[in-house]
């Protein structure tokens, strides 16, 4: 893709300066349209969640055992002293 853009730039360099300005204006307008369209497309991040829970235990019992292990492996927090 970058090669194509560089080829277009090289071709644009051969144009007169006034035509280069017009081309730049058209590119900017088109880029703004595309940016707006991309902003309006809903995020596809929900698809990224497919493997997000792959490391969780297979059963609920295994999950509770893992949580109990975490709970019992850390020391209790000190009691709060209220003013």
How does this model look, in words?
The protein has 83 residues and is an all-alpha fold. It has a domain at 2-40. 60% of the residues lie in helices and 0% in strands. It contains three helices and no strands. It has helices at residues 2-13, 17-40, 60-73. The longest helix has 24 residues, at 17-40. The protein is elongated, with a radius of gyration of 29 Å.
What level of helicity do the residues show? 55-70%
Secondary structural class: mainly alpha
Q: Kindly report the oligomeric state of this protein.
A: single chain
Poorly predicted ranges: none
- The total of helices stands at 3
SSE pattern: HHH
Shape: elongated
Number of strands: 0
Instruction: Report the portion of residues in β strands.
Output: under 5%
Biggest sheet descriptor: none
Determine the mean pLDDT.
84
**What is the CA-CA span between the terminal residues?**
65 Å
Summarize the topology:
Elements lengths: L1 H12 L3 H24 L19 H14 L10
Short description:
Helices cover 60% and strands 0% of the residues.
Features:
about 80 residues; mainly alpha; 3 helices; about 0% strand
